[in-house]
Amino acid sequence: MSSYVLDQYFERTPTKNWFDTQFVSYGSPEDPMTSIFLDPKLLAHRFYQLCSHEDVALASSLIRPSSLFIEDLSKAKYFTDEGYGSVKKVYIICTEDKVLPKEFQQWLIDNIGTVTEAKEIKGADHMAMLCMPKQLCDTLLEIAYKYN
């Protein structure tokens, strides 16, 4: 597997959409890594825009630098049909996701190549588990029953 999906995402995402998110290089020159520190405004306006103020406040208070894993992904082995390809995959589209717009989600579905089905949660932002937990749970149960 490569970091192709992340590369495509960064290529398609305008810089202004990142607000004041910080990307920092770390590691050694022989083994460089990239970390990301999300701007709290990014969380409020793109990740959690339909969530409660309490969820946004909690998420903002828990922000920590994280690896983007781009370098790790570029070194990872490709998935095989015998392993990854043998599992049914259902993609859940969140229609109001501002982190992964619906067009990019559709691009993912089209380019993963092994998506068995796509389901949609209308009105869900990137954090469907917080803004629409019942709808997400119902969708996951439906998928589990169908592909059990």
UniProtKB/TrEMBL annotation:
Keywords in alphabetical order: Hydrolase
Keyword Hydrolase attached: yes
Stored InterPro entries: AB_hydrolase_fold, MES/HNL
Regions that span the bilayer: none
Domain of life: Eukaryota
Coiled-coil blocks: none
Protein name according to UniProt: Salicylic acid-binding protein 2
